From TrEMBL:
InterPro entries noted in UniProt: Bacilysin_exporter_BacE_put, MFS, MFS_trans_sf
Protein name: Major facilitator superfamily (MFS) profile domain-containing protein
Superkingdom in the source lineage: Bacteria
Predominant localisation class: membrane
UniProt KW keywords: Cell membrane, Membrane, Transmembrane, Transmembrane helix
Localization (cell): Cell membrane
Length: 409
């Protein structure tokens, strides 16, 4: 099937984005949902430790939630068939029920590792639907020329919740036990459901198509085929795949590496927080960067600078320099993420948005478990610092693939 090289939504009326704009309501819902997720990510390890007293069990519970990422391509056809508002409602309500069930079992003392893993998988699965539906919703809510702004806003809010979420989790734990803190998470999740209900409903004709296994398989192939044929999306996915592989070396080893530089937990927290601050700054720069440079130039600069910053982290033995370089690297990543999303949305027909996003996320994140294992093995062989440097080199190399992108980007 042949597709247009550029999917335009300029027929939409450009509306000023205010607090009453549907995009603002979507962002408010996303904020509540992300906040609930961030607080839950703090409570989950503590809950598992309380039940099992095993750090291995903690990794199992976290892995159970992350494993749902492998199912991303399979949900793409469902996202393209269903109305995005219904999918958002389903995902938010499903997560609310999971948090509620977990809190009830925890309060009653009927919690187990198996139950936590099952509920975590359900939360992760609902999250995959939510992320895909959110990506699909944005082109329906704003005009084409507002896509970059909308994606930058979404990324900025997400990064903000990463910084604020742990603090809110700490406040909950200050006043409540782990069990009752989960009930507070339910409140945040329920608020997200209510905000989704305020979003406009848009009828989609794609949902009326007859479903069959053969049709489903055809739609899966159609999504993969489109990504490969659309070079703007294919090469940005390859760039992200290579870059994420290298960055994962730093993510896995950063805490251990910084702990070698200082035993002060406050300084450790500063280094980790610098990443969140950098991501917010990078996303904020993304609001304006596209006015002065092309996407191609921004991607190249961000990937090279981000990779070099990782190399510098691995070479430095000063805690403050490590924090600065970490902030620079996350700022580069923060500037890139909205651009990647905008490219996917602009070059994808609406009836393929769900499949393109789900499949692209699968492609770009599928090697992260391998990268984590490689980082662990290499750190034992050549040391943590050199392993981080190697990760930075890999991330930098991804920048040169940017020049394979079409000139019009």
């Amino acid at each position: 099937m042949i597709y247009s090289h550029f999917w335009k939504s300029d027929h939409m009326i450009v509306q000023k984005i205010t607090l009453t704009h549907p995009l603002s309501r979507l962002m408010m819902s996303t904020t509540m949902a992300s906040m609930a997720g961030q607080v839950y990510s703090i409570l989950l390890p503590l809950l598992v430790l309380e039940v099992t007293s095993s750090t291995v069990a903690v990794t199992i519970a976290i892995a159970a939630e992350r494993a749902t990422m492998l199912l991303q391509p399979l949900i793409g056809p469902f996202l393209d068939r269903a109305n995005w508002k219904y999918v958002l409602l389903f995902a938010d309500f499903a997560r609310f029920l999971c948090f509620l069930l977990l809190s009830i079992f925890a309060v009653n003392g009927q919690i187990s590792l198996l139950l936590i893993c099952i509920i975590s998988m359900c939360i992760g699965f609902a999250g995959q639907f939510y992320q895909g539906a959110q990506f699909t919703a944005i082109p329906h809510l704003v005009a084409d020329r507002q896509l970059h702004f909308a994606n930058s806003l979404e990324s900025a809010i997400f990064q903000l919740t990463i910084v604020i979420g742990p603090s809110i989790g700490g406040i909950f734990l200050l006043f409540f036990s782990i069990h009752y803190s989960l009930i507070a998470v339910c409140g945040l999740s329920l608020l997200a459901v209510w905000l989704v209900l305020l979003l406009p409903y848009e009828q989609q004709t794609t949902s009326s198509r007859t479903f069959s296994i053969s049709q489903y398989i055809h739609e899966l192939r159609e999504g993969f085929s489109f990504i490969y044929q659309q070079k703007e999306i294919w090469y940005t996915n390859l760039i992200s795949l290579i870059s994420n592989f290298g960055i994962q070396f730093l993510i896995v080893l950063l805490v251990i590496y910084v702990n070698q530089l200082t035993k002060d937990p406050l300084l450790l927290g500063i280094v980790l927080s610098s990443g969140g601050i950098g991501a917010i700054l990078g996303t904020s720069l993304g609001f304006f960067a596209d006015r002065f440079s092309t996407y191609k130039q921004i991607l190249f600069a961000a990937k090279v600078i981000g990779g070099l910053s990782i190399i510098c982290v691995g070479l430095t033995d000063t805690i403050w320099l490590a924090a600065c370089f970490n902030m620079i690297g996350t700022a580069a990543a923060g500037a890139v993420n909205p651009i990647i999303k905008t490219i996917r949305q602009r070059y994808t027909p609406r009836h393929l948005l769900g499949r393109v996003q789900s499949t692209s996320r699968f492609i770009t994140f599928t090697l992260l478990p391998v990268a984590s294992v490689c980082a662990g093995l290499l750190s034992e062989w050549i040391g943590i610092g050199l392993t981080i440097v190697l990760g930075g080199c890999i991330a930098s190399i991804s920048g040169f693939l940017v020049w394979r992108l079409p000139h019009k980007i």
